[in-house]
Amino acid sequence: MLWLALGPFPAMENQVLVIRIKIPNSGAVDWTVHSGPQLLFRDVLDVIGQVLPEATTTAFEYEDEDGDRITVRSDEEMKAMLSYYYSTVMEQQVNGQLIEPLQIFPRACKPPGERNIHGLKVNTRAGPSQHSSPAVSDALPSNSLKKSSAELKKILANGQMNEQDIRYRDTLGHGNGGTVYKAYHVPSGKILAVKVILLDITLELQKQIMSELEILYKCDSSYIIGFYGAFFVENRISICTEFMDGGSLDVYRKIPEHVLGRIAVAVVKGLTYLWSLKILHRDVKPSNMLVNTTGQVKLCDFGVSTQLVNSIAKTYVGTNAYMAPERISGEQYGIHSDVWSLGISFMEPLQLLQCIVDEDSPVLPVGEFSEPFVHFITQCMRKQPKERPAPEELMGHPFIVQFNDGNAAVVSMWVCRALEERRSQQGPP
Ligand code: ATP
Ligand code: MG
């Protein structure tokens, strides 16, 4: 074909691109774009979201020369569509024909409840896009558009935190769904932990996540990580929380029982608080238990936003070692499932020690840990969910009662010593 011989379309660079968004059963809206070749998938979805605010659009289609519909769900597929479109424009120009707009057909996602694992895709493009926002032609109802974008700005920026005020420093760790950074918040002078998750979802879903996260402002417990705000920038959500200078429990090796006991008390209190707000944690594990040098223990990464949990789950499907058996087999998730994960989280040091003491015999290390501790874990990990302790039974368990003395100094000293050891092992900076 002619366009192949000409290479990447130099003549198209400055050309205005008209995208005709076909609205099901009611005509079309023309959108004029001045930076066509740089246009991203996300930009198109944003505009479709403004044209069709009621629908949740996750993809769109265009027609090839045979009239077959081709789906676009990513920047790569966008590029392919634009290449194809520009080739048809060249042919129309060569033949002296009128240039047809690029017709696209928005595709609504499946209704909630139906999982659509393939409908979402992680976009690994780093950093903000370099081009300006797409210009929208007069064909769009401009009043409603202005109103909705102002409203969106308010909702998405949340008025508390924004990217411009944040200076990212070290990377604290990578998880399944994102990366956590230590960051400096310029206006407040605070050090934060900012979790950044790449999510290619519609504006509607972004709005839903932001409103679901609002409950975090109301969470007020010294056993739950402090929440400072969240915002979306393009396809990334940034969740700003309190920074815990001791990090998460997974990086600590052997935790003595008198320290672990106090940690368990804080974790049980944190979970009981969440359950009282009708929030299930859904991801109880050592990496979501944070400690600091003042001896505080706080839970993070709990499933407060169903939509966020679903969006991450659609992108990163999987199970982890801390999940209750009923969850792995797809049965109903409840408080009991959090209790299982609690038990298995604290069983780790037991097992670790067991391996060190005697590799061959898979028995609990008698004498190493107290009977109440072993009993606590065994109860939490009963196969039948209903047989596991209920919240008030957890609080009343002898292991928890024994260490429920508010002695933060024990945890504080242990965290400080462990950090000191780590520093001396790493040597001078
Ligand atoms: P997953 O994504 O499966 O939940 P994860 O919990 O290890 O795994 P992240 O939640 O992304 O992954 O966290 C990565 C690491 O960042 C954690 O292991 C923890 O060490 C660190 N981290 C997270 N939040 C904070 C915080 N508020 N303060 C200090 N460190 C943190
Ligand atoms: Mg985590």
Could you give the topology of this structure?
Blueprint (H helix, E strand, L loop, with lengths): L1 H5 L10 E6 L5 E6 L7 H11 L5 E7 L5 E4 L2 H20 L7 E7 L33 H16 L8 E9 L4 E7 L4 E9 L4 H11 L1 H4 L8 E7 L2 E7 L14 H20 L12 E3 L5 E3 L6 H10 L9 H4 L6 H23 L13 H10 L10 H6 L1 H6 L4 H19 L3
Parallel strand pairs: 1-5
Antiparallel strand pairs: 1-2, 3-4, 3-5, 6-7, 7-8, 8-10, 9-10, 11-12
The structure holds adenosine-5'-triphosphate and magnesium ion.
The site of magnesium ion (MG) has 4 residues, from loops.
Question: Can you walk through the features of this model?
Answer:
This protein has helices at residues 2-6, 41-51, 75-94, 142-157, 203-213, 215-218, 257-276, 306-315, 325-328, 335-357, 371-380, 391-396, 398-403, 408-426; strands spanning 17-22, 28-33, 57-63, 69-72, 102-108, 166-174, 179-185, 190-198, 227-233, 236-242, 289-291, 297-299. The longest helix has 23 residues, at 335-357. It has a five-stranded mixed beta sheet with strand order 2-1-5-3-4, with helices on one face. Helix 10 (335-357) crosses helix 11 (371-380). The termini are far apart. The radius of gyration is 27 Å and the shape is elongated. Strand 7 and strand 8 (190-198) form a beta hairpin. The protein is an alpha+beta fold and 429 residues long. The chain has three domains: 17-109, Ubiquitin-like (UB roll) (Roll); 159-242, Phosphorylase Kinase, domain 1 (2-Layer Sandwich), CATH 3.30.200.20; 247-426, Transferase(Phosphotransferase), domain 1 (Orthogonal Bundle), CATH 1.10.510.10. The protein contains 14 helices and twelve strands. The site of adenosine-5'-triphosphate has 23 residues, from strand 6, strand 8 and strand 10.
